[in-house]
Amino acid sequence: MAMLEPEVSPSSRQRLPVIDIARGVAILAMAFYHLCWDLWYFGFLPADVGFDPRWVFFARSILASFLFLVGVGLVLGHGEGIRWKSFWRRWLFAFGGAVAITVGTLIAFPESFVYFGVLHAIALFMLMALPFLFVPVVVVAVVALAFILPPFFFANILFDEKIFSWLGFWVVPPITNDLVPVFPWFGAVLIGVLATRLGKVALLPKLATIQPKGKVPRAFAFLGRWSLPFYLIHQPILLAVIVPLSMFLGTQNTLREADFLRSCQSTCESAGTSAEMCTTYCQCGLEGLDEDDLWDAVYTGVLSPEQQTKLDENNRQCSALIYPELLDAPAQ
C-alpha cells in the first residue's frame, strides 16, 4: 500500500512509530489474506476464502484500515501546509505501482487484469483528499458520509461496465482481480482525515511520546515504512512458490472437483431428485466445466455472457440425461 510517511508537522521529520506499526500490522494482515486466497484458489485450503462472508469482512476491514491510514498520513504530513515535493514523490510511488500492477496483470490475466485496484484508488484519493485537509471538519464529515452511504441504496447496470465501474454502484461486479471504487472507499480516507484533524491537538502529542521497543514492534514499523515495495513484491513471491507446487501436486483440480461434486449433489438432492440421478447429473456437469474451460469463471462467480451461455447449455444437456423429455424442450 502506498501509505504516506506521517510527520508531526511540516517542519519536523519525526515519525510516529505507532503509525508505522499500525501500517505494518495492516500490510501483514493483507499479505496473510492474499496467502490464504492463493492457497484456496490453488486447492490447498477447503475454506471459501473468495466468498465466505467472514473472509470478505476480513478483506474489507484490511482495505478500510489502509485507506484510513492514507487520510491519517495526509493530515500528519501536510495538514499545516502542503509540502508539494514530498507529496508528489509519494504520489508518484503510488501511481507508478498502479501502472506496474496494471501492466503485469494485463500480461498474466488479460481477461481479469487490474485497471482500478488498491494503488490506483490511493493515487486518486490522495489528490481528492487535499482540499479536505483545510475545510471545516463538519464538511469533511458530511462528504465522507456522502461517499460511504449511497452504495447501500443505489445500484445500476450501467456501472457493470468497466468504463464506469471504478465509481462503484454496479449490480454485477466486472471481471477483474481487484477493484476499489470511489464510492464508498474514498469515504474511508476522509474518515482518516477527520479523525486525525479532530485528535491532532490532544492525541498526537501523546502518540509521539510512545517509542515501542523490541524486535516485533521494530519489524512492524519497518514493514510500515516500506509498505509499497512489500505490496508490489509479496504476491509474485507467493505465486512463484504456490503455483508450481499446485501443478506438481495437482491440488487445484482435485479440490475444485470435490467441492463441485459435493455442492452439486447436495443441491440436486435437496430439490427431490434421487441420489443416483444426481450423481449422473453432477458428473456430467463436471465434464462440461472441463471441456468448456469454465472452472475459473464458475469458481470466482464472475462469468461473461458467453461463458454463461455455455454453462446454461451444459446444464440443459446434463438435465436431459436424467430427464430425457427435456431434449425435446426448446432452449430458453
Automatic annotation (TrEMBL):
Q: Where is the Heparan-alpha-glucosaminide N-acetyltransferase catalytic domain?
A: 15-236
Q: Which positions, given as ranges, span the membrane?
A: 21-43, 55-76, 88-107, 113-130, 137-159, 179-198, 228-249
Q: Which InterPro entries match?
A: HGSNAT_cat (IPR012429)
Task: Give UniProt keywords alphabetically.
Answer: Membrane, Transmembrane, Transmembrane helix
Asked if the record carries the keyword Transmembrane helix, the reply is yes
What's the protein here called? Heparan-alpha-glucosaminide N-acetyltransferase catalytic domain-containing protein
